[in-house]
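The material for today's practical consists of a large collection of protein records. There is nothing in a record beyond a sequence line and a structure line. Backbone structure tokens are a discrete shorthand for how the chain folds in space. Nothing more is needed to start thinking about how sequence determines fold. As an example, a complete record with its sequence and its structure tokens follows.
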Amino acid sequence: MVDLHNVGTFNADTGFKTDYLNELEKMLEKVLPNVMLKVKPNIESRIKILKRDWSIVYDMLNGKNNSDFGWDEHR
């Protein structure tokens, strides 16, 4: 997904454009041949779980009510 973001082809204001998962599937097939990972159900379900599990961390760091929560460079 980092490679997809860095290429910029599938970037959108709110994340990724539609059809980015199909491109991700093709990229994974090149790197991991014979693994047979498919967008549905494998990749979609994993992304859904990551969004659910990491949404609280995202909200703490970037949310509107973060109360200046952040990393202290000096500690």
